[in-house]
Design goal:
By secondary structure, the chain is mainly α. The protein has helices at residues 19-28, 88-131, 143-162, 168-192, 199-227, 235-260, 266-270, 273-291, 295-301, 307-320, 326-334, and strands at 5-9, 12-17, 36-38, 46-47. The protein has a 4-stranded antiparallel β-sheet with strand order 2-1-3-4.
Length: 336
């Protein structure tokens, strides 16, 4: 230690240098942590950072050095560290310029393109859904990948803004928000609204359901009148009216199931056969009590067939016992 330190500069060994001079060289930037230093007269060399005594002093604050005057128009080269990179204020300014340019601008441009593509193409499915144009309604589900494009553009723009890219990043952020919002509105609306191509089926089902409700109300009134007839009323006419209303109610149930066979609400309408089963039991008990005849005889007296009624009630019984599923029954009515 008493003989001082040696340090390498290129292929030359410089020194010996005292501890104080070594610390001064460190403050001036002449000696870096990775330069080779020897404390044993050149017998062995190691990086300067491995000598703790060189760095223990409290006065290792960089000393500002006045720049040497340069000729007018001459370029000033930044000081370089051992790894060839700029040091000091030159390193700070270089990094500040290169960091956003290195990745932010590319992300900003990619986000802007993705967000703009998503927004522009989403306008097509949005207009088709709003106008409910049947011939082009097949294009509305295409909004789902367009929402993904808008959200991707939004995410890339957010990352680019975090890197202070500006410009395209800000525009991509706004466009991405608009495209994502419009796409989600269109997608949710398509999921919850009826397909305009099936509008005629919806109208047909609504009409059949209204006819069934009217037929059910008429049957209830007819069976009440039949049970509560006075001696002056024509009993045979009341029974005939009740039987015909039962047949009309049966046909209304069949029409409703055929109309709803292509809709997701078929099961709801099919379960209404339970009401038809109850109405038929009321009819059978009434004619047996009042006229001592069975239901088949009452239906034969008006010249109609009970086949349709029997088929519907059999389907309901098979469903109740688990021998038929809703899907199989729906397929049967869809084939009519």
């Amino acid at each position: 230690m008493s003989q001082g330190y040696l340090w390498k500069k290129g292929d030359r060994d410089l020194g010996p240098v005292s501890l104080a001079e070594m610390r001064k060289m460190i403050r001036m930037g002449t000696l870096g942590r990775f330069q080779q230093v020897s404390a044993d007269g050149g017998a062995s060399f190691a990086q300067a950072s491995t000598f703790p005594e060189l760095w223990e002093s409290q006065d290792l604050i960089p000393v500002p050095v006045a720049p040497e005057p340069t000729p007018y128009g001459a370029a000033v080269a930044p000081p370089l560290a051992l790894d060839g990179q700029p040091t000091g204020e030159f390193a700070t300014s270089a990094n500040a310029v290169s960091r956003p340019a290195r990745g932010g601008r590319g992300l900003a441009l990619a986000g802007f393109i993705a967000a703009t593509t998503g927004l522009v193409l989403t306008l097509g499915p949005l207009l088709v859904w709003v106008l409910r144009y049947p011939d082009a309604y097949w294009a509305v589900p295409l909004v789902f990948p367009l929402v993904v494009a808008s959200v991707t553009g939004l995410a890339l723009s957010c990352i680019a803004m975090a890197r202070q890219a500006g410009g395209f990043a800000t525009t991509g952020l706004v466009v991405g928000i608009c495209g994502s919002a419009l796409g989600l509105v269109t997608a949710i609306g398509w999921l919850v609204s009826n397909d305009p191509r099936d509008a005629w089926i919806v109208r047909l089902t609504a009409t059949a359901e209204a006819d069934m409700q009217i037929a059910h109300r008429n049957f209830k009134a007819a069976i009440k009148r039949y049970r509560e007839h006075s001696p002056r009323d024509d009993h045979a006419d009341a029974r005939e009216r009740m039987t015909k209303d039962l047949m009309l109610l049966t046909q209304a149930h069949r029409n409703l199931l055929q109309a709803a066979a292509s809709t997701p609400r078929f099961s709801k309408h099919f379960r209404k056969l339970e009401d038809l089963r109850g109405d038929f039991l009321s009819f059978s008990e009434a004619v047996k009590l009042q006229d001592k005849i069975d239901s088949q005889k009452a239906i034969d007296d008006i010249g109609q067939s009970a086949t349709s009624l029997k088929e519907l009630l059999d389907l309901w019984d098979l469903y109740q016992t688990g021998q038929l599923t809703i899907d199989s029954v729906q397929a049967k009515f869809r084939d009519f």
